[in-house]
Design a protein that fits this description.
Blueprint (H helix, E strand, L loop, with lengths): L2 H7 L1 H12 L15 E5 L4 H18 L3 E5 L5 H10 L6 E6 H9 L5 H11 L6 H6 L1 E2 L2 E2 L2 E13 H7 L7 H10 L17 H12 L17 H16 L8 H9 L5 E5 L2 H5 L19 H4 L1 E4 L13 E10 L5 H11 L4 H5 L7 E2 L10 H6 L3 E2 L5 E2 H4 L2 H8 L5 E2 L8 H10 L1 H10 L5 H17 L1
Parallel strand pairs: 1-2, 1-3, 9-13
Antiparallel strand pairs: 3-9, 4-5, 6-7, 6-8, 6-9, 6-10, 11-12
Helix pairs in contact: 2-4, 2-5, 2-20, 6-15, 9-11, 10-21, 11-22, 21-22
């Protein structure tokens, strides 16, 4: 599995490990002395990305005179390392590319300087950030981190097939189901949905649809709400789609993409990491549809995306699924210098930051007060790809680019806003929802049974 795919699937598992490793440790530590420079940890550890980050830091040092030591840290090691650093009074000043789950974990252990994050947001202008990004990185009126970039779980669909069949864009439960039914014919399926019982991708895919109908894992009191009418509608839709309009057998992160790329299915739910692959820019995951033989970019030219599929019960509370990363000033951060560093990353260095992998890093800060769309506009000009590289704006139309850069506005996640990050991490580690979805997709159980089994499984974990 590629580095990009692994990155997509592990954030909450890492947060779970963090809870276990950090639970015995206090934050400890003192404010760092910046006279010898700053210490920054980064979870962006690939060599090419480290080179980009070092270039940004060189620019920062040239402008401010402040030296910064950059230390790469693997995501599956950060829990142990930060606990050890706290005990030794050697916490870094700043940590870059911290996932939503880890932000919550670090805050629960006292490693986050929320006041400093709030000051940075105020300096940069809160109205320059996507509101959803700030909400997901806040706890009440405490701004836990400075959100930097995101990827979204999106519905990708074949515009040529939709136009030929006279179908509306699949932006609602109703239009999605109608399209899946209409386009399931002969050797073609309307959609390919994840049903792998061992894959977090299956839970992510279900959660993406569920959030669109305001199906929540828990309420503000922490009570499990998977037995709600909103969740019943979501489970019923997923069951219908998987049983009747998606290929049989176990479908995972690789097979769903292959199904769409081969022309077998008219829709898939996947992450924005698919954008470069769909354009034929990665040799080991190239489109293989009949039309793609003559035009490797056929799917990119004849596909559109939907970041939010709204259900009939959502009202004004429909949400979309995604992962977001942040810069975290720690509780030991040298305040003024660390603020300067993060603000530099979010201004002069920002385009280079999300330009490291634009297909999976769209900016959650669209621009500045003077130029409100500066960063969103720049994102569309950046090159993407692995074996071949091309600007995103040459591959996708302006409407698609605009949709992607605005996806963070409606982004949400189960449990995080309700303070149940630990429960979410346990569910991600044990994957009970993926198992139930697999059984429902195979027709072993009906939708009502699937919903009850989800409730029972999550309740058992919560009470365990």
């Amino acid at each position: 599995m590629s580095t990009k795919t692994r990155r997509m699937l592990v954030p909450m598992a890492a947060a779970t490990a963090g809870v276990l490793a950090l639970s015995a440790c206090g934050s400890g530590g003192e404010v760092n002395d910046a006279s010898d420079g700053l210490l920054m940890w980064t979870l962006e550890v690939q060599p090419d990305r480290l080179e980009v980050q070092q270039g940004i830091l060189d620019g920062f040092t040239a402008e401010t005179g402040i030296d910064v030591e950059l230390v790469p840290v693997e995501e599956d090691q950060i829990a142990q390392l930060i606990a050890s650093a706290a005990l030794a009074n050697e916490l870094p000043d700043v940590i870059g590319s911290v996932s939503l789950g880890l932000v919550r974990t670090f805050d629960s252990e006292g490693y986050v300087n929320a006041d400093l994050s709030g000051e940075i947001i105020d300096d940069l202008g809160s109205d320059t950030f996507a509101s959803g990004a700030l909400e997901l990185t806040s706890d009440g009126d405490r701004q836990l981190s400075v959100p930097s970039d995101a990827w979204a779980q999106i519905l990708v669909y074949r515009t040529d097939l939709f136009e030929a069949a006279g179908l509306e864009a699949p932006t609602t439960y109703e239009t999605l189901l109608t399209a899946a039914e209409t386009l399931t014919t002969g050797d073609q399926f309307g959609i390919t949905l994840a049903t792998d019982p061992t894959g977090n991708f299956t839970q992510q895919t279900f959660e993406a649809l569920a959030l669109g109908n305001n199906c929540q894992l828990v309420d503000d009191s922490g009570d499990i709400t998977l037995d709600s009418d909103e969740c019943a509608t979501a489970v019923d839709l997923y069951t219908q789609l998987a049983q009747d309009y998606s290929p049989a057998g176990t479908q995972d992160v690789v097979s769903t993409r292959a199904s769409y790329f081969s022309g077998q299915s008219a829709m898939i739910l996947w992450s924005t990491f698919i954008l470069d692959e769909m354009a034929g820019l990665r040799d080991d995951a190239a489109p293989a549809c009949d039309e793609c033989a003559d035009n490797p970019q056929y799917l990119a030219e004849n596909s559109a995306i939907v970041p939010l599929i709204t259900g009939p019960d959502a009202g004004d509370s429909a949400g979309s699924y995604g992962e977001m990363t942040s810069f975290v000033p720690t509780s030991a951060a040298s305040p003024e210098e660390s603020k300067q560093l993060i603000e530099y990353f979010m201004t002069e260095g920002y385009i280079d930051w999300f330009g490291m992998a634009p297909e999976g890093k769209f900016p959650v800060r669209a621009g500045t007060a003077d130029n409100p769309t500066e960063f969103a506009d720049a994102w569309g000009t950046l090159e993407t790809g692995v074996d071949t590289r091309m600007p995103l704006g040459d591959l996708y139309d302006a409407a698609t680019i605009e949709t992607l850069t605005g996806a963070a506005e409606n982004m949400s996640r189960w449990g995080l806003l309700q303070g149940e990050g630990v429960l979410v991490g346990q569910i991600t580690a044990q994957l009970p929802i993926a198992q139930v979805i697999s059984d429902a997709g195979a027709g072993s159980i009906d939708a009502a049974t699937a919903q009850q089994e989800m409730v029972d499984a999550v309740t058992e974990i919560a009470n365990g």
